[in-house]
Amino acid sequence: MHCKPILIVSGEPNSIFFEIFFKTLExxxxxxxxxxxxxxxxxxxxxxxxxxKRNINQIDISKLKNYKLDNESINIIxxxxxxxxxxxxxxxxxxxxIENSFKIAFKIIKEGVTDxxxxxxxxxxSFLNKKFLGVTEYISNNFKTKKIAMLIFxxxxxxxxxxxxLPLKNVVREITKKNIYxxxxxxxDFYKKYYNFKPRIAVLGLNPHCESVxxxxxxxxxxxxxxxxxxxxxxxxxxPYSADTIFLKDNRKKFDVIIGMYHDQVLxxxxxxxxxxxxxxxxxxxxxxxxxxxxxxxxxxGKNTSNPLSLIKAITFLDKH
Length: 321
Known about the structure:
Blueprint: E1 6-9, H1 17-27, E2 34-38, H2 40-49, E3 56-58, E4 74-78, H3 95-110, E5 116-119, H4 124-127, H5 135-142, E6 149-153, E7 158-161, H6 177-195, E8 201-204, H7 218-232, E9 237-241, H8 249-252, E10 257-260, H9 263-274, E11 279-283, E12 288-292, H10 309-320
Parallel strand pairs: 1-2, 1-5, 2-4, 3-4, 5-12, 7-10, 8-9, 8-10
Antiparallel strand pairs: 6-11, 11-12
Helix pairs in contact: 6-7
């Protein structure tokens, strides 16, 4: 295999993933080979249900380095799973299946076969069982990576939450200068590596209008000094800014990335602006991991009406880099 393939963990079996994957194959010409990790029996059931036809090429993981792959067929490493029908309800039944899928992916990455991973949508509640905040943390833990960042990426504007899937009452204790430094460095390194420029970064305050009635104001005591320190190190960064106005058109066009203090502070506006035209990139791993910026969408499974744009963007990004 001369060109490193794109590895895709199909994720939650009862999701829209195979549907958007089929639509992506129909809409997008992909140069790099794709290797899917998932259940062949489930794939066949959902292909039939969604009226999609393509040959299936089952891959033997022990001979992976010797395969000549193309995307005329669906290249898949089979992971045992016994679906009763094409679509069922999300439950604990899929936990081992998803875990085994990731184990195979991690093994392939650690053997150096590829450095490109896409993970399909996963139900955190049934899979992670409160052991990890999210799939980002689950993957980084497996590779012993402590400095990571979740970048919701769009070429016009990206966002990064300082804290990820954390209950709001726990957010404040994670707002530290160190956390701001680490996220900024990872973001800056990503843009320099993949786009060859220093990004213009805005940092949001925690409190409404960056003001607090409390004696200790995180915006003044933590965020502002952290930003000033990074300015002194020649990062293109400024803030803290009030979250209620930063996403106005004339404000947001001054920046490439906006770092927020918590998940919904930046993910709500970015999804409102771009809907499915964004991807989730995990920064800090020894490989590049991307996922579509949406969940399993249980309400729409089997209806064949889901939008594949985020998966198309994820594959396009890895196809280019």
